[in-house]
Amino acid sequence: MESNKQQELILFKYGGNAMVDEQLKRSVLQNICSLKDRGYQVVIVHGGGPFIKEALETARIESEFIDGHRKTPPEAFEHVEMALKGKVNGSLVSLINSLGYKAVGLSGKDGMSVVAKKRKHQRTVNGTREEVDLGQVGDVDRVDTALINLLLDKDYIPVIACVAADAEGNGYNINADMFAGHMAGALKASQYVVLTDVDGLLKDRHDPSSLIRQMNTDRMEALLQQEIIQGGMIPKTASCEIAIQNGARSARIINGTQPNQILSMIEDSPIGTLITES
C-alpha cells in the first residue's frame, strides 16, 4: 500500500535531552505536529536511553556497554521494552493527543513493521578479531510499511518505539538512529530529521560557528577518517546515509533543544546539516 503521494512525509528521530525536559518535550511535539496543519505527514521514531537506564537501575540490573552498545540479556530486555513501549511511547502519544492531534503508539513488532535480526558485533582485542554476544540487541532485517501507511492515510501520527522481533518472535532492542534511518528510507520520506542537542555536524565540536551546512553521502567517509564525525554523531550520520540509500530524499540533523528550528527547516532556512545523495 502506498501513502498519499500529494503529501510529503517527514520522519523525526526523537530522543535525548529534548525528551527528558517536560516543557521542552511539549514544545518539540507541538512544532512537529503543527507540520500536519501545513500539509505534511509526520512519523516519529523514538529511543529513550535515560528511561532505560532508570528502569534497569530500579530493577537492579547493571548496564554494560560494549563499543557504545548496551548489552541486553533477556532479564534486561523485559525492562527495556517496558521503558520504551510503556513509559516513553505512552507519554508521547498522550501528549500529542492532548495537543489536539491523533497519535498511535507502536513498536516494530506491530504489524511486523520491522523484522529484526540478532546483531553480530565484532571487536578487536589484543590484535584478535572476536565476536561479542550483546544479548537481545538487534539490527533491522527488513521493513514493512503497510501498517504505517494505513495509519498515515487515516490522518494518524505513528509514534514508533525502536523494539522489534525476529521471524521466530524473539524480541530485540535496536539502536534508535538505525531503526529510524531504515524506516525513513522504506517510507520514502521527503526528509529524515534527526533531533540532537547541537546545531548539526560541526567541524570543531567546540565551535558552534563551524557548522557544516550541507554535504552529500560521499563526504561522510572522509569526515569519519578526519574524526570530524565522532562519538554520538557516528550513528546519527550513519542513519542518515541508510535513510537516503533506501529511498529518503534527504536527511537533516538539527538541534532538538531549539524547537523553533523544526518550522524554520521547512521554510527553506539554512537550519542544521542537510545531507543529500551523492
The third-level CATH topology is: Carbamate kinase
- Quaternary structure of the protein: single chain
Q: What is the gyration radius calculated from CA atoms? A: 18 Å
Low-pLDDT segments, ≥5 res: 1-5
**CATH fourth-tier homologous superfamily:** Acetylglutamate kinase-like
Share of helix among residues? 25-40%
Which CATH class?
A: Alpha Beta
What's the number of helices?
9
The residue-averaged pLDDT reads: 90
Level-2 CATH architecture: 3-Layer(aba) Sandwich
Tell me the span between the first and last alpha carbons: 29 Å
Number of strands: 16
Q: What share of residues are in beta strands? A: 25-35%
Largest sheet: 8 strands, mixed
Structural class comes to: alpha/beta
Could you characterize what this model shows?
With 278 residues, the protein is α/β, with parallel strands linked by helices. The chain has one domain (9-276): Acetylglutamate kinase-like (Carbamate kinase, 3-Layer(aba) Sandwich), CATH 3.40.1160. The protein has nine helices and 16 strands. It has helices spanning 17-20, 22-37, 49-58, 74-98, 146-153, 176-186, 220-225, 233-245, 260-265, and strands at residues 9-14, 41-46, 65-66, 69-70, 103-107, 114-118, 121-125, 128-132, 137-143, 157-161, 163-165, 171-174, 191-196, 214-216, 251-255, 273-276. Strands 5-10-2-1-13-15-16-14 form an eight-stranded mixed β-sheet, sandwiched between helices. The protein has a four-stranded mixed β-sheet with strand order 6-9-12-11. It has a two-stranded antiparallel sheet with strand order 3-4. A hairpin with a 5-residue loop joins β11 and β12 (171-174). α3 (49-58) packs across α4 (74-98) and α6 packs parallel to α8 (233-245).
